[in-house]
Structures are given as structure tokens and as C-alpha cells.
Amino acid sequence: MTANRSDVADGMTTYNALITYLDEIESADGNSAGILYIELDDPARFNDLFGHNSDKVLLRTFVSRLEAALTYDMLAKVGAYRFAIVYSTIESIERLEKAAGEIVNLLREPMGVGENLVYLTGTVGVASSVPGESASMLVKRAERAMADAKKEGRNRIGSDASETLFSSKEELRLMRDMPHAIDRGDIYFVYQPQYDYQQCKFTGAEILVRWRHPDIGDVMPDVFIPLAEISGMIVPLMTRTLIEAAQMFSRLELEGITDFSLAVNLPFQVLMEESFFHTVDFLMDAYALAGKKLTFEIMEDTIPDHLESFTAHLEKIKSMGFSLAVDDYGTGHTSLTYLLHFPVDYIKVDRLFVRNIHKSRRTYLLFQSIVDMAKALELSVVVEGVECEEEDAIVKRFGDITVQGYFYSKPVSAESLSRLLSKQSDLPV
Amino acid sequence: MGKRVLIVDDVRFNIEFETKLIKNVMVGFKEQVTIEEAHSVSEAMKMIDANEAYDAMIIDMNLPDGSGVEIAKYARQKDESVRLAALTIYPNEYEKERPYFDLFMKKPIMVEPFKQNLIRLLRIG
């Protein structure tokens, strides 16, 4: 550790130096690095009892005990009562969990403040690096693991759940190949057409992402999207999706189809990135996305910590002239919260409420209540997963809604969508 | 007068994306720009021979007929002052080649980082 990495104020390494160090070791070799993220529970509460510098005394004691008990590559102070410990090479997550256990044991020893003995409590989060991941994302994952563990109680250890994602060699490989796949077009797009009952035609489509790996074959989105979120590749992937949308709008315009909407999934992580709006601004101008009928779909299970900034970002999308939809409506536990707080234009009712609707009275009643509520709130309704004639016949009774599903069309290529639409525009209305 | 920029990439999507990004930045700075494109090492070398000097080049490292490094060496020989950026998914794999380039840009291209790098490459703003 060099002197210029240290924070002069308290002599400890800072967050920025931590990130620089993590970047260096990532470029040095292909090994996994490990991070322990520690938060102590408000040591300042002892200041009222034992004098105003008590927290500082406790922190010093804690740090010197850490230094004595553990061998690591870097210790950084990343917040008032937060620390990060780096192991530049680790063989397994268990090694990190063992070290985290030692920290929790340290906390179980009483500490002296003047003549008093007190106990500090804290929580430790653990995460190991994956290839291609940014340093800040690694730290963020460890922090999240810590925050999750904290909900369970004190002096606990949390391991980043996404760790298990990388247990298989194939997933590690997917992570490594993803930038190349985005660049070369192995990750591509298909369109799920949406049929409007009132107009008796396709009036929109949802853009879905697919990956055909040259060696592995088709990779499912529910496998690679979470990997993209962890590695940060979700941001360029989103940019690609929006460019695809812009190009499809232009293509349809050339064919004389202007009244057509496209929907894209917007991951929470992308929405909350400040750079997202710069990107959309650029695309509105350079790819003529401005004024197009584009909808951003948000998973309803996203529960933001910072409601205000989340709402502000949604409002911003609306102010740019785009629409908002709640995806998979009814499956999460935030459905009503969404409708209460956020400026959404339509809901996409999950396929769960349509499957066997002709056989199940309960399904029918639930579906009816969702549609009634949406209409009362003046929200449009798109129904996912209409797969057979019987389901279609029932859903159709609800009138002014749009459906998507295999009964009308499976997801199709850009060329097929364009053919499908030009065929229907030939039909008499 | 404005700047002359050569993009070397074999992926059409990237050429279009980079072109739009460069134009977007230059409009912001009220600067003129002429953008030309090449799709391989050999084509890029021909263009370097045939045309007046470029102000900058953005070179994909992985081209069908060789490495972007060959273009960088060639361009540098012809014109010491040309500004060269390497575009690659794996910047860490090109440690030895760093001296041939003024900067490295990462793929897949992201809007903001690309624009910032371009401003540095062209020394504008």
C-alpha cells in the first residue's frame, strides 16, 4: 500500500483508492478477488454515554484488532463506519466467509472506552469478483450482501447470492463471451406482436432479446440477463435494444406504417444510471427516436430504496414523450404500490391470470378484477400469454384490450414482423 | 476546414454508431468533421496512402485480415502527429501495444464514455 492511496485525515485508505487497487489487480491476472464489506452499527451512540470521542476510540480499537487478526491485501475505510477488506486472490467463497466469521468473533470481544467496556455490533457482506465485472460493481455486491444480512439481525454474515450464478463453468464463459456477443450480433432481437381486439389488428410489439452462442447454442434470457446485470453489460445491451427499436420504427415508416408501438424492458439498474438519460437523449436525436411510440416496461417486483429518485426518473421518461408499463402485473408483491405511486400508462397482466381461464372460475374472477381496476384507473391493458382459442374467447369479452401470445403469433424476426404488418395493412378494415 | 476522422471496423453497426456519435459531439462543439470508413487492415492502409492526412483514427483491434496494431504502426510512420484510438473488448490484452495508440476505447460502445474519449482524442473542448 502506498502513501498516496491513504486518506490524510485519518490515515486510512479511501474508497477511490480501493477502486483503483481493485482495477489494478483485475488487470494483473485472471484470478478472483474477494471483498469483505463491514458496517458497524452506529458507534456514535456511545458518545452520549461516554464522551464525544468514544466512537473514534472504538473504531481505532476495531481497526487495530482487524489488523492483528487477519492477513489481507488491503483495508479501506469506505464510509463513516464502513470498511472494506480486499483479498487479491481467493480460491473459494468459503475462504472469505471464514474471514468474515473471524471479524464477527472480534466484535464479540468487549472493547474499552475509558473505564467502560462496550460491545460493538456489525454486519459483514462477502462477494468475489467475476471476469469483466467493474470494481465498483464488486464492491456494490458485497455491500448489498451486507445490507441483506443486516435485515436478519446483527453480527451476521451475508454472501452475495449471485455467487451461486457463477458456480458453473458455462456461466463464467457466458460472462466472458457476452461483450463479444453484443458486439458481433450473436445477441439479437425478436418481436412479440400485440393484437388489439378493438381494431382487429396488430398494433404493437414487444422487443425480446435472444442469444445464439456459436458453440453453446441458444442461451435463455433468464440465464444471461442476470449475468448482464451483474457484469454491467446490461447498459450497452439496453442501448442496442433502443437502437433496434429506432431502426424498426424507421423501417416501418418507410413501409407506410406509422401508428405502431414498440415496447422494451427497462431494467431497474439501467433506469437508475444517470448515463441512461444521456444515452436516450443521444438516440432521440441521432437515431430519430424522438416522438416515437416507445414504451418502457418495468418489472413490478422492483422495489426501489429511494422512491423519490425512482419516481423522478420515471417522470423524466414520460416527459421525453415515452410510455411506461408495469410488466408481469400481478405476480410480484408491489402491484398496487406501483399503481399508487408511479406514472404508468398500462399494465401487462401476467400469463398466470389467463392460463386455463376457460376452466377456472377463480382465474376468471381475478382477471376480471384486474381489468376492472385498470379501467377505473384509466390504464390500458395488455394481456400476456393467450395461447389457445378457448382462452382467447374469454379474454375477448373484456373488450378494449390488447393481447400477445402464441394464439396470435409467436415471437418473430424483424423481417417477419414487417411482412406480417404489411399483409394486414392490405386487408379491408 | 474541420477534422478528418477514419473509422476502421468490419461491423457495420459499429461504423454507423461511431459515425453518429462523432457527428453528435462535433455538432456540440460547432466543429466540421469528415468521416471515412475502412473495413479491413488492407483497406485502411490504402486509404492512408491515398488520402491527405487524417486528424484521428478509431481502429477496431480485431479485423478480418489482421490486427489494428498494424494500421497504427503504418499510420504513425506516415504521420507522427495523427491521433490514434484502439477500440477493443479486451484492452488488457494489448498492454504491449499501448505505445502505438493515444488511447484505448472499450467495446461494446457506450454513449457517454465514447463521447468523452473522442473529445480527448480530438483534443477539442
Features:
heterodimer; A: 429 residues; alpha/beta; TIM Barrel; 2 domains; five-stranded mixed β-sheet; 16 strands; elongated; disordered N terminus; B: 125 residues; Rossmann fold; five-stranded parallel β-sheet; two-stranded antiparallel sheet; 40% helix; globular
Task: Provide a brief overview of the structure.
Chain A is an alpha/beta fold. Chain A is 44% helix and 21% strand. In chain B, the strands form two sheets. Chain B has a five-stranded parallel β-sheet with strand order 2-1-3-6-7, sandwiched between helices. Chain B has a two-stranded antiparallel ribbon with strand order 4-5.
Structure description:
The complex is a heterodimer of chains A (429) and B (125). Chain A has 2 domains: 3-166, 2-Layer Sandwich (Alpha-Beta Plaits); 170-426, EAL domain (TIM Barrel, Alpha-Beta Barrel), CATH 3.20.20. Chain A has 15 helices and 16 strands. Chain A has helices spanning 15-28, 45-50, 54-69, 93-107, 135-152, 169-184, 221-231, 234-254, 268-271, 275-286, 307-319, 335-341, 361-376, 389-396, 414-426, and strands spanning 34-40, 74-79, 82-87, 111-113, 116-118, 122-128, 156-159, 187-196, 201-213, 217-219, 261-265, 294-299, 323-329, 346-349, 380-383, 402-403. In chain A, strands 8-9-11-12-13-14-15-16 form an 8-stranded mixed β-barrel, surrounded by 5 helices. A 5-stranded mixed beta sheet of chain A has the order 2-3-1-6-7, sandwiched between helices. In chain A, strands 4-5 form a two-stranded antiparallel sheet. The longest helix of chain A is centred in the middle third of the chain and has 21 residues, at 234-254. Chain A is elongated, with a radius of gyration of 26 Å. In chain A, 38% of the residues are buried. Chain B has a single domain (3-122), classed as Response regulator (Rossmann fold, 3-Layer(aba) Sandwich). In chain B, the strands form 2 sheets. A 5-stranded parallel beta sheet of chain B has the order 2-1-3-6-7, sandwiched between helices. In chain B, strand 4 (62-63) and strand 5 form a beta hairpin. In chain B, helix 1 (12-28) packs across helix 4 and helix 2 packs parallel to helix 3. The radius of gyration of chain B is 13 Å and the shape is globular.
